[in-house]
Amino acid sequence: MMANPYAPYQPQRRRVFVSYHHRGDQLYYEEFSKVFHDGFEAITDNSLERRIDSADFGYIMRCIRENHLKGSSCTIVLCGRDTPKRKYVDWEIEASLDQSMGLIAVLLPTLEVFSNGGTAKPDRLQDNIDSGYAEWVWWHNLRSNPALLATIVERVNSKSSRLIINARRRMDRNG
Predict the structure, then answer these.
(1) Rg (CA), the chain
(2) Would 72 disulfide with which of 15, 27, 104, 137, CB 3.0-4.6 Å?
(3) Interval 10-33: pLDDT, tens
């Protein structure tokens, strides 16, 4: 079947992977998925804690790469109160960086904000925000301007992989 030459141009939808604390931030994931479904492909709920029944770290990382991240250009981390304490979020960030995927932090309203204005994000994610590789955006800014996400995704996907910092020791248990 031949494509209709008169059909309006539809830009290719980016595939993204969303990492988050499933018990704590499921409602934000569901809202995120509803709002951004039309603009992005394969925003899926792939809870590693429920799906991978293994203690073998190499196997788990291979599953993350092959079954969860494959085909995605960017990882979006929904950062809530308990996100920095979740080992699987750390592992998903590590695997994303190993593949030089773009990395975005979406700071949820439940995120802990310190008296100096800083926030409690996963350490590996913070390393890459500090290096200039990853970017962050507040949830309320993204919700009030959904087009902003496409701009940020394109920007992080164009960054040099030389900015990646991924040498931190991985978390071996939840905090």
Answers:
(1) 16
(2) 15
(3) 456 778 999 999 889 999 999 998
| Residue pair 28/78 in contact by the 8 Å Cβ criterion | yes
Task: Count the Cβ atoms, other than its own, within 10 Å of residue 21.
Answer: 26
The predicted model scores a pTM of 0.85
| Whole-angstrom distance, CA of residue 122 vs CA of residue 142 | 20
Residue 132, Ramachandran bin (φ over 0: left; ψ between -120 and 50: alpha; else beta): left
Which domains are present in the chain? 15-163 (3.40.50.10140)
Long-range contacts of 6-13 (CB under 8 A, 24+ apart): 13/39, 13/40, 13/41
Nearest alpha carbon to residue 11 among 36, 40, 44: 40
